Amino acid sequence: MKLLGIETSCDETSAAILDGPRTVLSSVVSSQVEHLEYGGVVPELAARAHLRLLRPIVRMALDQAGIALDDVEGVAATQGPGLMGALLVGFGFARGLAWARNLPFAAVNHLEGHLLSPILTDAGFEPPFLALLVSGGHTELVRSPEWLRYEMLGSTVDDAVGEAFDKVSILLGLGYPGGPAIDRAAAAGRADAWPFPRARLAPGSLDFSFSGLKTAVRTVVERRRGELGLGPGERLPAAEQADLAASFQAAAVGALLARLDQALTAHPTPRVVVAGGVAANSALREGARALCERRGVAFHVPPLRYCGDNAAMIAAGGILRLEAGHRWPLSATPVADFGRLPL
Ligand code: KG4
Ligand code: ZN
Predict the structure, then answer these.
(1) Does the CB atom of residue 180 touch ligand 1 within 6 A?
(2) 325 CA distance to ligand 2 centroid (A)?
(3) Which of 27-36, 120-129, 150-159, 279-288 has the lowest mean pLDDT?
(4) Fewer CB in 10 Å around end: N or C, the chain?
(5) 276 ligand 1 Cβ < 6 A
(6) Where are the alpha helices (DSSP H) in 105-237?
(7) What does the pLDDT read at residue 197?
(8) Relative to the alpha carbon of 137, which ligand is closest?
């Protein structure tokens, strides 16, 4: 089935054409630059940019796939979670197109899209798998015993890990989005320069907490700024920024890997997935790969282009769900907060 997928849950406007769940004919992702000067995504600006960009992006996806709109056999869009205004644009477009052309329509959970993203590149990818889903909005440990079934094993009790990267980056004056900036700065720093705390949750818990780590970084940054007599617009010296970025990253990634290791012991599973925007982090990719090697389990992490938000993963989820017989009424609407998995 040739299916058009659309993703507009946050600040990426994306369209993709897949021919079956494992064959990407085209994938177009446009990251909005409207938000850079605000240090975070402004929901109303995101919705307006999606409105402006979506039609040309869909056109590009069709052109790059070398097919016409008439060749499209199904449509899928992200139903949520995400920003309501942003979701409405892509979801309304997709549902309207499906209705007008009498095509099957799939409403896909954004988190399921991330969990399934290895299917786009890894021929051997299949359940059962244990997934660490790490993004700007989510930090979850999920087990999938079979296709389209999920068990939630653990979740963050406060900030998402991507959110922690973004906030620490602002604190360090490294800008937004913070993940890539910290990753780059950390490469030149010493990970053991500052012994930041790892959250201690109840023994056996597979939950995460990142707000204590963020506060610990803030305390050090404010103290050092005071000691150096820095004014509001002035940054710490680059070497100190790098040490703080590397030490924060080591603590955050260490916490993720410790939980993943614990989850593998509690729920032995032959395959591990690390997915979501933070799966682009170089320390996390290397650490998770080493952990999986040591534990003797297969490791799946999407290439960078499928770590962040993209419509190809949504299209894959849509095809799998349609093939499994799922159908959505024309009255289906976006859902800003899906709550927790299972879906
Ligand atoms: O999946 P995603 O694109 O959007 C959400 O669904 O949230 O994830 C975005 C998050 C942001 O917090 C961004 O800072 C983080 O992924 N991120 C990274 C890296 N690249 C993106 N975090 C750490 N290291 C990176 N290299
Ligand atoms: Zn996402």
Answers:
(1) yes
(2) 25
(3) 27-36
(4) C
(5) yes
(6) 110-116, 161-171, 178-186, 211-228
(7) 85
(8) 1
- Residue in this structure with the two tokens 């199904």, named with its chain if needed: 74
Identify the residue whose C-alpha is closest to ligand 1 atom 7: 136
pLDDT digits (tens, 9 = 90+) for 47-104: 999 999 999 999 999 999 999 999 999 999 999 999 999 999 999 999 999 999 999 9
In the chain, where are the structural domains located? 2-117+306-323, 126-301
Whether the model clears a pTM of 0.90, i.e. scores above it, the answer is: yes
Which listed ligand is nearest to 308 at the C-alpha?
1
> Which residues share a beta bridge with 218?
none
16 CA to middle of ligand 2, Å?
16
- Which atom of ligand 1 has the smallest separation from the CA of 166? 14
The rounded distance, in Å, linking the Cα atoms of 314 and 324 is 15
How far apart are alpha carbons 150 and 147 in whole angstroms? Answer: 8
Q: Which of 165, 182, 285 to mutate to test the pocket of ligand 1 (most atoms within 8 A of CB)?
A: 165
The residue nearest atom 8 of ligand 1, judged by CA position, is 277
Pocket test for ligand 1, best of 135, 248, 307, 338 (most atoms within 8 A of CB): 135
Decide the pairing of beta strands 2-7 and 12-19: antiparallel
Residue 113 CB–ligand 1 contact under 6 Å: no
Q: Which of the four pLDDT bands, split at 50, 70 and 90, describes residue 343? A: low
Q: Does 2-117+306-323 match 126-301 in CATH topology?
A: yes
CATH class (in words) of the domain with range 126-301: alpha beta
Q: Which ligand is nearest to the CA of 170?
A: 1
Per-residue CA distances from 253 to 62, 179, 196, 248, 281 (Å): 38, 12, 12, 9, 9
The dihedrals phi and psi of 27, each to the nearest 5 degrees, come to -150, 115
Dist. CA 319–CA 162, nearest whole Å: 28
- How far apart are the C-alpha atoms of 305 and 313, rounded to whole Å? 11
Q: Is 327 exposed, middle or buried (0-12, 13-18, 19+ CB in 10 A)?
A: exposed
